[in-house]
Amino acid sequence: MRVGLVCAHAGPSLDGPTVGTHQHIARVAAELAARGHDVRVYERRDARGQESVDVDGYHLERVPVGPPAPLPTAELVPFVTEFGRWLAQEWSGAWAPEVVHGHYWVGGLAAAHAVRETDIPVVQTFHSLGVEQLRHLGRRYDGPGERIPLERALTRAVDIAVAQCNDEVDELTRMGLQRTSVAMVPTGVDTAQFHPDGEAAPRDQRARILSVGGLAAGHGQEDLIRAMRLVGDAELVIAGGPPAEQLADHAEARRLRELAERTGVGEQVKLVGAVPHDQMATWYRSADVVACTPHYSSAGRVSLEAMACGVPVVGYAMGGIADAVVDEVTGKLVPPGDVRTLGVTLRRILADNAGRFAYGHAAVDRVRCSYTWERTAGALERLYERVIGRRKPAEPVVETPRPVEVAAEQRGPVEAA
Predict the structure, then answer these.
(1) 2-188+381-391 architecture in CATH?
(2) Residue 250 half-sphere exposure, CB side, CA atoms within 13 Å?
(3) Strand arrangement of the beta sheet that strand 58-63 belongs to
(4) pTM higher than 0.85, yes or no?
(5) Mind giving me the DSSP string for 234-246?
(6) CA 288 vs CA 145, 191, 325, 337, 367: distances in Å
(7) To the nearest 5 percent, what fractions of the chain are helix, strand and coil?
(8) By the 8 A CB rule, do 3 and 37 touch?
């Protein structure tokens, strides 16, 4: 198959909001290419001199749309139509995709615009939904005002939407999609990178709780800091945000540190800043438990990576985390926002060495059985084949003459007596 993957954002920065999305797209592209498909990935060029390249078996096309500089999503929206026109022109030549897969809502809008006058089917992965983020984050939601209505419009323009968790399936159907037009395909984990054996980041003798996520509203670090009062003698390491040398000037980092001091756990909370993804496995292995407490998470990527490293997860029972973590088997699930239960659960799991060992072994098995990139790519491959089959025009039916009719034609007209 010829597959076009569209992400209208530029490539990820270390702490960019779409870093997980780009990692997902890159791995899906590589897996599909390894299966013999002709894959091209389209992202916006955000610097002069950036060239399109071949990488990991697929072609990465950097689209010259908008200024050659990084743009936040709100400023990218006006260029979506231009992005779609560029794609339409590109696909009018010798190479055109048989299926287009849009990623994130702006990528999906560009993809849908590009193929609107063709019979090329569109698959869409939102990665997050504005209406769901608004519900969970409330006043802290800072997405562009046009996002939610444009996402609703996009659901009517695609052939099928890919959800990454069961909560997202429900949300998409509430937005108006038929259940038959939503496919659940979880994200994958690189089990060659994330596994229990290997180096671990340095640590002291105290038990370690690890939290991974950007320093922004809704990532749940505030809940964890408040919960530490109930945990006892343990350290909370928060990985994410800007590089460590920039934390002192970061407003959210300062706010979290001030909260820790006010709460009386300042000495137990450590912010380490951004960690390159290829080094994250060492941080997971250094932890006794990984806490996943975002107020919104569709993919549950952090919980899966931690589980792949053999570390139990304590997480909020929502989104991809609720799907990934099997309560009392690979970790513990607690009600979202319940800080007291979160703290008590963390204290109990840190005190239970045998329980953590059992959870960790079960977590590795669960990831290797259900969350590999091979499974994700295989599910998408079958989905692409299905939507392509729907869009293909029906073959003309050629009726085979019956033997009697053939014999009559061979005999010629009947002569009159």
Answers:
(1) 3-Layer(aba) Sandwich (3.40)
(2) 20
(3) 53-55, 58-63, 38-44, 2-6, 99-103, 122-125, 160-163, 182-184
(4) yes
(5) EEEEEE-SS-GGG
(6) 41, 20, 16, 22, 18
(7) 45, 15, 40
(8) yes
Residue 71 is which amino acid?
A: L
How many C-beta atoms lie closer than 10 Å to residue 140's C-beta?
A: 12
Query: Tens digits of per-residue pLDDT, 188-247?
Result: 999 999 999 999 999 999 999 999 998 887 789 999 999 999 999 999 999 999 999 999
Candidate CATH numbers 3.40.50.10490, 3.40.630.30, 3.40.50.2000, 3.20.20.140; the one for domain 207-370: 3.40.50.2000
- DSSP strand pairing (269-273 vs 331-334): unpaired
User: What is the C-alpha to C-alpha distance for residues 44 and 91, in angstroms, rounded to an integer?
Assistant: 16
List the one residue out of 358, 354, 312 whose CA is nearest residue 331. Answer: 312
Nearest to 115 by CA among 94, 91, 95, 93: 91
pLDDT above 90 covers a percentage of the chain that reads 78
Determine the average pLDDT of the residues in 348-355: 97
**Measured distance CA(169)–CA(166) in Å, rounded:** 5
How far is 141 from 206, CA to CA, in rounded Å?
36
- Which tokens in the block code for residue 167? 């909560």
In this predicted structure, what is the pLDDT of residue 391?
Answer: 73
